[in-house]
Write a structure and sequence with these properties.
six-stranded mixed beta sheet, alpha/beta, globular, single chain, four-stranded parallel beta sheet, 4 helices
Length: about 200
C-alpha cells in the first residue's frame, strides 16, 4: 500500500449539528435525484449476469472499474458516493459483497475512498468500510467486515477482519495465526533443543 496512515486518516468528516442523527440530513449531503439514478444503475448491475454490462453501468455512475473486473450477482458499490470506489484490473467483487464509502453516525457522516487492488478478491457477503484499501492480490474471506487496510497478497477473515495468511513472496508464512504461534514456540524452543542435544 502506498498511502500512509489508517482508513480513519483518509475519511472526510461532515458534521451535522442539531438534535437529529446525520442520516436524517442525507438529502442535504447528496441530491436525491443523483442517489435515485445511482440506485437504479446499481440495481440493474446487481441482477445482470453480464460482466460487461455491470462494468458499463457502474462506470456511468462514477465507479472506477479496471480492465477485466468481475462483479458477482448482488454485489453493491456505494449508492451515495460511487465515484469514491476504485476497483483495479482483474479484481473480483463476490456475490452480495458491499463496498461502503460512507458512514452516517449520530453527529456527523464520513466519506472515504475504497480501493480494491489489482487481482484482489472480496468474498461473498463481505462488507468493506469507507477509507479501506485492499492491496493487490489480497483476499477477503466471505462474510468478513473489513475495517482496516488489507496488505497486498494477504488473506483476511472475520468480524472484524484480521490477517489469517500472507503469501510467501510477501515475507509471510503460508498461514498466520496458528502458524505464527507454532513458529514462535519452535523459535523459543530452539535454544532448549540445542541445550538438550548437548546434554545427551
Amino acid at each position: 500500500m502506498t498511502d500512509e496512515g489508517t482508513r480513519y486518516d483518509r475519511l472526510t468528516r461532515h458534521p451535522t449539528p442539531g438534535p437529529r442523527n446525520s442520516l436524517q440530513s442525507w438529502p442535504s449531503a447528496r441530491s436525491p435525484l443523483v442517489v435515485a439514478r445511482n440506485y437504479a444503475a446499481i440495481v440493474a448491475a446487481r441482477i445482470s449476469p453480464s460482466l460487461r454490462l455491470k462494468n458499463w453501468l457502474l462506470r456511468r455512475i462514477g465507479v472506477t472499474v479496471g480492465e477485466g473486473v468481475s462483479w458477482g450477482l448482488e454485489s453493491t458499490p456505494d449508492v451515495f458516493w460511487p465515484e469514491l470506489v476504485t476497483v483495479e484490473d482483474h479484481a473480483i467483487i463476490g456475490y452480495d459483497a458491499t463496498l461502503l464509502c460512507h458512514e452516517f453516525l449520530q453527529d456527523e457522516y464520513r466519506t472515504g475512498e475504497i480501493v480494491v487492488g489489482e487481482r484482489a478478491m472480496v468474498g461473498a457477503g463481505a462488507v468493506v468500510l469507507p477509507g479501506v484499501h485492499v492491496g493487490a492480490g489480497a483476499q477477503v474471506a466471505a462474510n468478513s467486515l473489513v475495517v482496516e487496510d488489507v496488505p497486498p497478497d494477504a488473506t483476511v477473515a472475520g468480524v472484524p477482519a484480521e490477517v489469517v495468511s500472507r503469501s510467501a513472496a510477501d515475507g509471510g508464512s503460508e498461514r498466520d495465526g496458528a502458524g505464527d504461534s507454532g513458529r514462535k514456540n519452535s523459535e523459543e524452543n530452539d535454544g532448549d533443543s540445542v541445550d538438550d542435544a548437548a546434554q545427551s
